[in-house]
Design goal:
- The chain is α+β, with helices and mostly antiparallel strands.
- The protein has 13 helices and 9 strands.
- The strands form 2 sheets. It has a 5-stranded antiparallel sheet.
- 34% of the residues are buried.
- The C terminus is likely disordered.
Length: 293
């Protein structure tokens, strides 16, 4: 991957993620983490042992055991429970994750439902975690706010690791796989950064250093959609977020590469199933407000 290729910034600029620490210390016995708030979770097991169960998630193991310091990352809301040794307990730092766009957030949507990784496997995470643990254990002014920000740093480092280790993460065809491919990533980043440009298979293929047909075939194999289908979906995801922010569709059309509001409305209705106005009337909650997915 070229050193200048930033695969995350455009995504995180358009779709923010907010972390909020809600627990630091020992957990003993049974603890349940609900999905009904529509939030993801990031748990860091500092020491001790842990058994995790997923009573309703068919795509996850019903029970997993951890016996070394680890991170558990739930990008989407999933009911899960911790079963800890009843005497000594296990030592945790935990945060909720609020992804802009909820179920439509492209990062949360692209990741598997759970990433459980030993801390020792994620190179470069030590210094951030040491600072996180120090703040979590302190009684200093601003402790909670600073811990939230450090959690967000840890999350970005974890996302970097996911992009560099797609096989270990177990990602299916989709965005993460595409961003993990050095050639496809150049085209994806360009679409993310400049969604309103008049992209074609030829121009995207040139960015990837591939022929038109080789690029189209590789993109569909890795990402699971054609390049122009992905571009349309990316534009519409941005349109949905900005509609909820109160931006007029005429301005959106210009920014997203459509000749006029009518052209954007036609594509929106065809792909989403309702007009932008009808969609907005059904989805008036602000981008940071979440429903269960």
């Amino acid at each position: 991957m070229p050193p200048h290729q930033d695969r995350l910034t455009a995504l995180l600029d358009h779709f923010h993620v907010r972390a909020e620490m809600f627990y630091a210390g020992r957990l003993c016995g049974l603890h349940r983490f609900d999905a009904d708030r529509g939030l993801g979770y990031l748990h860091v097991l500092r020491r001790g042992e842990l058994e995790v169960t997923h009573p309703r998630a068919t795509a996850l193991p019903k029970r997993i055991r951890l016996s070394e310091p680890s991170v558990l990352f739930y990008p989407r809301p999933i009911l899960h429970s911790f079963h800890n040794p009843p005497v000594e307990g296990a030592d945790f730092v935990c945060a909720t994750l609020d992804f802009d766009g909820g179920a439509n957030n492209p990062i949360a949507r692209a990741l598997p439902p759970l990433i459980a990784i030993p801390l020792a496997a994620i190179h470069g995470l030590e210094s951030s975690l040491n600072l996180l643990f120090e703040e979590a254990d302190s009684v200093k002014c601003g402790r909670r706010l600073l811990a939230d920000k450090i959690f967000e740093v840890v999350l970005i480092q974890l996302l970097r690791w996911c992009l560099d280790n797609p096989e270990t993460v177990g990602t299916r065809p989709g965005l993460i796989g595409g961003l993990s491919d050095p050639r496809l990533a150049r085209a994806l980043v360009a679409m993310h950064e400049q969604p309103g440009d008049a992209w074609t298979l030829e121009s995207l293929g040139r960015l990837a250093g591939m022929s038109r047909s080789a690029f189209a075939n590789r993109f569909r194999e890795i990402v699971g959609r054609t390049p122009l289908e992905y571009l349309t979906d990316w534009r519409l995801t941005l349109a949905q977020t900005r509609l909820r922010e109160g931006q007029p569709i005429k301005m959106l059309a210009n920014d997203l590469g459509y000749a006029n509001a009518s052209a954007l409305s036609r594509v929106f209705s065809s792909r989403i199933g309702v007009s932008p106005r009808e969609w907005l009337s059904q989805n008036r909650t602000p981008p940071s407000s979440r429903g269960d997915s």
